[in-house]
Each structure stands twice: as structure tokens, then as C-alpha cells.
Amino acid sequence: MAASSLLSLISVFCLLLASASASIAPKPKTTTTITIPLSPFFSKHPSSDPIKTLNSLASASLTRARHLKRPKPSTPFAKTQDFPHSYGGYSVSLSFGKPPQTTSFLLDTGSSLVWFPCTSRYLCADCAFPNIDPDKIPTFIPKLSSSSKILGCKNPKCAWIFGPNVLSRCKDCSRSSQNCSQACPPYIIQYGSGSTAGLLLSESLDFPEKTVSNFLVGCSIFSTRQPSGIAGFGRGPESLPSQLGLSKFSHCLLSPRFDDTTESSDLVLYRGHDSAKSPGVSYTPFHKNPITNNSAFREYYYVTLRKIIVGDKAVKIPYKFLVPGADGNGGTVVDSGSTYTFMEGPVFEPVAREFETQMANYSRALDVEARSGLRPCFNFAKLKTVNFPDLTFQFKGGAKLAFPFVNYFALAGNLSVACLTIVTDSVVSPGLAGGPAIIFGNFQQQNFYVEYDLENERFGFRQQSCKK
Q1: How many Å apart are CA 274 and CA 254, to the nearest integer?
Q2: What is the pLDDT of residues 329-366, one digit of tens each?
Q3: What's the Cα-to-Cα distance from 138 to each of 105, 132, 186, rounded to whole Å?
Q4: How many angstroms separate the CA atoms of 464 and 447, rounded?
Q5: Which letter, b or e, does each residue of 16-39 get, where b requires 16 or more Cβ atoms within 10 Å of its Cβ?
Q6: Closest CA to 459 of 336, 334, 342
Q7: pTM of this prediction?
Q8: How far is residue 240 CA from its own chain's centroid?
Q9: Which residue of 55, 139, 193, 244 could cross-link 117, Cys pair, CB 3.0 to 4.6 Å?
């Protein structure tokens, strides 16, 4: 769709939005928590073939990595940072408006804007996924909410999205004008496999015991291949943690079954000061985000991975890939929107070789590797017992994350073949150099309590069952 046509479409939808005044709720004086159900959200593959499912998730993980590593620059009229997600994520339900309207969002720690499918005329192209009817995607209806209002061009929150020079785009407003009615420019966010576009609203966000007024949220009116809204939990000022002033948030991801499920675990939001460590949790400090011309790198959660240990052997990884440089290349980010962990070739290859060496007694399933896009894969047909080498990530400060084997191997081929669930650019898509070298995905985080301690700038984890 041409940009001019899209902007015309957005201007028409402006007439659907109602305006109302609102006030900002006071910050709490003591620590309070809000608990939200968190459910796996996986798009069914049209085939029942488990190898095709693995291939779909591997390809989606690479697509996600490509755009986290190389976000595209902004267009002259809209923000176009790329924050793709695979449909191997986790969803939360949030309620916006007065009276509240509840919508499902994908949790994404790799981006910051919160947006939902919006208005009765919402269009979603190429959204006919096997378990999704594009004509029945739930949408937020602004005209049914007394608290909805279009964000003005001179509202300081408009600059959160478009930067401090946004006033240059407010052509109908003079800098001295106090009553400018021009709306903040429309946003366009491009994803690896789609996009979304719309207008920014100021709206109320409703929780069971608290309502947050004047919350910035995107009202998307046109999307491609994006059947669900996104709850941005990144470091940007427009993210949900930033707008709510959270001191930390935590989640526990259920083991994925690559299918929709009614089971849920908890996403917990914390407000107020708390320097105490959670019981049994190992911590590593967040690494300072690199300051580059690419503002997307400022939204990620960087950690310092010191060693990757396979079995009892520390794999030799070039230092430049473990710590981000001034150009933003290298380092490790934690990302809830990626399914499989991504490693650049110089990191992945020695890790894969060590698995191949320690599992040399098992035959390689080269046909499954070719079909799935994962490697190495091993054939265990007719074997009664199988020994998987341990996989451990050791972080700065000594914190060690020892994965259960189901977090780094997936079964395929009638359960007689297992593949390492780490993807790299050398398998499917070359040319992914630059940006974070390692992207820690949600498949490897399953059945771990994971804590983002924003006040104390640390990342924590503890292995546990996430079933309630």
C-alpha cells in the first residue's frame, strides 16, 4: 500500500475517535504488584509434520534475529524501527478504555510501543493463519470509550516515538501555539514478515485494583501478517514498564506445545522500591546499552555472557562477540519475542562442533537437518537410553544458567530424532553480521522464573515449573 494512501486511510479513521480529559494516577508509596495471566501463543502449522513445524519456527527465529540486529531507519513521515516477532510467543490480556475493553497482546521485551488492532474497520492483510480468522480479530473501538483521545502533535509523548524534532512535522502548529489541534504523526512499524500502522492515543489502562490514565497506546488500523497487538516491554519511554514506572517485572514461561492452549502462568509487575533479592534467584547485572545511531539498540536488555559450557568444556568464543562494541555489534540480548536462541556463526559453530564431538557415538540425521533448518540433529531410533551433554550459560558475576535438555533439544521425526534448537545465520540466511551476536530466545527460557529488575539494573533467573 502506498504511503499516501495509507495516510489518507488513517486520516479517515481519525473521525472515529472520541476525546475526553483524564488525569495521571499518583505513584504508590509502597511496593505493589499486579499479576497478569501469561499464555503460550503459537500459530499452528498447517502440516502435522513435526519437522515442518521446527523449520517454521527456525525460519521465524532467524527473521526475528535479522530485524533485531538490523532495524531499518525511519522514513520521513513515520517511525519504522523493525521489531518482528515469530508466532512462537506468549500473550497477555490487557484492558483499555472506559468502560474497559480487553484485548490480547504478544509480550515483547525487544520493542517498546504498546499497540492493539483498532476500530471496527481494522484491516489485516495476509492474516489467514490456520487458527486465526482475519474477519474475527478482536479490536479496540475508541468511540465506545469515554477516555480515548488522539495524541496531539505538541504532546511531549509524541516525541517519545518520533524524537525531539517532531515539531518540524507539526506544520499547522507554530512553536508558540498553545491550542494546536494537529494530531501526532501516524506510526508505521515494519516487521520481518509484516507491518502495522495507525495513530497514537491517550487512553486509560485498567487493572483490577488500579487504573492508569493518559497511557500512550497505538491504535493500529491496518496491518499485514500481525493478527495480535504487541505489548512492548523494552527500555523505551513508551514501553509498558516505563509508563507504569515499574521497579521490576517477572515472568515464568510455560513449556510450549506450538499450539494455542488455555493454560497460563504469571506475568508480575512491581511498583515501588525493593532492593531485596528474590529467594533462590541468580543475578547478573544488565550491560549498558551501546550508544549508536540506531536507537533500537537502546531498547534491548543486554546481559554479559562470559562462557558457554557444553558438558564440562567451556567453548572458545571470540571476545568481541560476547561484549557489545561502540558500533552496537556483539553482545547478548534477552528477547521474549524470539523463539529459538540465535547465535552468529563464529559463536554457533564451536558450540555445534562441541555437541557433535561429545555425541559422536550417535548417528547424524542429515535429512532432518536439511528439512528443519536446525543442526546438529541426531537419530536415536532403537536406542533405549540417550545421554545429552549439559548446556550452561555463565554470566558476569558468576551466575550460571544450566538448561534442562528439553530447553535446547527438540524431538522430531516420530520422536526418534532430536535437534539442537539454536539457530544461526550460516544455516538458512547469510548476511546477519552486526548487531547483537546472541539473542536469548523464549524456548530456552521455558520453566524458568525470569526477573527484569529495572531499579537495580540486574537480570535474574531460577529454574522452576511454571504450571500453576
Answers
A1: 27
A2: 999 999 998 899 999 999 999 999 999 999 999 999 99
A3: 11, 11, 22
A4: 6
A5: bbeeeebeeeeeeeeeeebebebb
A6: 334
A7: 0.87
A8: 13
A9: 139
- Sign of the CA dihedral 425, 426, 429, 433? positive
Nearest-angstrom CA–CA distance, 441 and 428? 18
Going by their DSSP bridges, the two strands 341-343 and 438-440 should be labelled as antiparallel
In the chain, the amino acid numbered 288 is K
Task: Tell me which amino acid residue 198 is.
Answer: G
CA distances from 113 to 234, 266, 366 (A): 8, 21, 42
Asked if 322 contacts 332 with a C-beta cutoff of 8 angstroms, the reply is yes
Backbone angles phi, psi at 60, to 5 degrees: -65, -35
How would you class 142 by CB atoms within 10 Å of its CB: exposed for 0-12, middle for 13-18, buried for 19 or more? buried
3-class secondary structure per residue, the chain: CCHHHHHHHHHHHHHHCCCCCCCCCCCCCCCEEEEEEEEEEECCCCCCCHHHHHHHHHHHHHHHHHHHHCCCCCCCCCCCCCCCCCCEEEEEEEEECCCCEEEEEEEECCCCCCEEEECCCCEEECCCCCCCCHHHCCCECHHHCCCCEECECCCCCHHHHHCHHHHHHCCCCCCCCCCCCCECCCEEEECCCCEEEEEEEEEEEEECCEEEEEEEEEEEEEEECCCCEEEECCCCCCCHHHHHCCCEEEEEECCCCCCCCCCCEEEEEEECCCCCCCCCCEEEEEECCCCCCCHHHHHCEEECEEEEEECCEECCCCHHHCCCCCCCCCCEEECCCCCCEEECHHHHHHHHHHHHHHCCCCEECHHHHHHHCCCCEEECCCCCCCCCCCEEEEECCCCEEEECHHHCEEEECCCCEEEECEECCCCCCCCCCCCCCEEECCHHHECEEEEEECCCCEEEEEECCCCC
pLDDT of 225 reads: 81
Residue 215, all three cell numbers: 497511557
Q: What is the pLDDT of residues 24-57, one digit of tens each?
A: 344 434 678 889 888 886 544 445 677 888 888 8
Closest CA to 116 of 3, 226, 9: 226
- Does the N-terminal peptide bond of residue 376 adopt cis geometry, omega within 30 degrees of 0? yes
